[in-house]
Amino acid sequence: MEYFIKIHFSNFQTTLSSLNISYYNRNSRTLMAILLTFSFSYFSAQSNSDKEIAALYKYETQPTPTQRLKIGFKALRIAKDADNDDEIKRSLVTISSAYYELGKHSEAFRYAKMMDSETGSDRFLSKIYIARVKCFLYEDLGMVDKAKQEINSAFQQASKLENKNTDDYYELMGLLWRDKSVFYTDIDSILKYDQKNLDEFLKFKKTYKGSKNLSMPYNNVGYDYLQKEDFPRALEHYKKAEYYALKVNDEFNYAFVCQSYGEYYQSIGKTELALEYYKKCLKIAQKFNDYKLALAATDYIRQIYLREGDKENRIKYDQLFTELNTKINSNNKKEINDLVTIIEKEKDQELQNSNSSKYLIIGGLVLIALLITLYAFYQYRKGKNDYQKFNNIIQDLESKSALELKNEEKPDTVEKTVVASSISDEKESELVKKLNNFEKKEQFLSSDLSLSSLASTFNTNVNYLSKIIKTHRNHNFSSYTNELRINYITEKLRTNPEYLNYKIAYLSEECGFSSYSSFVSIFKQQTGLTPSKFIEYLSK
């Protein structure tokens, strides 16, 4: 059965340009999905499916989306010949989910609709899993209410299952809680549902490899704590993730743990340890021919060597980065060619089907047309709301600009606030003044800026600085610098027409973001608009 999980590993599209290393470095909250393929142990034990169908779903290595599509179509033909309702449903879910991962949303909707029309036995819980597929499809189209309806439907169906004391049920509930997190951008909500995911997996009676290994949910929760700059809890969860991966010799999950350790040690300024774990991650990724994970690890390594001025190693890993890039592009081209072949073959097969099959295709096309119409109406309504958001942003910028001019001649003052008993009033005043100076000099535009580097500049420690920022700016370090950068670039766009002609990538670098995808995501999160839409309205 093919299961979807939504993860912070802001996940990859079908080309490297859309990957932007973000799938494996987990910096954005773009709506992406990983397909994990395995079979329900409990439900499979009850199955009387044809041996030929069962053999199709057994493979040693994770198949590509195109390979899953081939498996789904072959299984569907066998299941129809055998009049096997359960396998027909499972095949339709496999096909729909594979099309989704390939970015073929209309085809994914088509097979999801076919799945919905199926009746009878549902031993593989296909109705629940197709609801998850539709949730992601609607989410991608911006139809959030419809997406929430689908995931709520999946929860309702799961609650009606009779046997709730199995590892497969706990896994299903864990994945559903994980899906819930896609509707949130704040780290506290994400952590809440990641923890629920972990809590369900902790109910397992056995220890598993792969997607059911506890390493994955522990790793996700650890990452959430890292984003909250709760370093002790992040490390605690990463150690548990490492333990469960190594317990069953699950090297693939351990590769992600190594990546997480690298991020953790880099965050606390221990560069040598960070390099050590990034290289472990790279080695395992290369062993499994996971070029995208290898590419992400390589990018981390070369960026560290670049900052340290180690030219020899930077060149070495730059070359490896280029080689991996080439391999990914080559694989993508092959994937596209295979997909075209499959689609053409299925079209030829459809020409030989009965009139009832033709009516089914027409119904699918009508559904797609209806969805496109609904989506167009949604975009029209959204456009009106976006323009109102734009006007509010401009008004705020003008108000801030006027207020700043009014306060320019006033001396810096520090409002008396109780931060913590360990920070003296004199030290607090000194740090707030340095923070004001940091903002005035626009030092937040440096892409190399980190909490530890700023603390060093201020001649203090990260704990003191974090408390000062939280108390006097009501933010953690990441959200504080992100807000400064977005405010800076929106003001530049408003007051300097030349900036309207610059590419988004340049604007990203100009305001201090090292990742294009992170800039776009955070810009929209803060303003409610994408950078391109904001520029479009300014240009009118």
TrEMBL record:
Secretion signal, residue range per the UniProt entry: none
Task: Give the UniProt keywords, A-Z.
Answer: DNA-binding, Membrane, Transcription, Transcription regulation, Transmembrane, Transmembrane helix
Q: Does the entry feature the keyword Transcription, yes or no?
A: yes
- One of the record's GO molecular function terms: DNA-binding transcription factor activity
Its domain of life reads: Bacteria
User: Does the record carry Transmembrane as a key word?
Assistant: yes
Q: List residues traversing the bilayer.
A: 359-378
The segment(s) forming the HTH araC/xylS-type domain are 429-537
Q: What is the protein named?
A: Tetratricopeptide repeat protein
Among InterPro entries, the record links this protein to: Homeodomain-like_sf (IPR009057), HTH_AraC (IPR018060), TPR-like_helical_dom_sf (IPR011990), TPR_rpt (IPR019734)
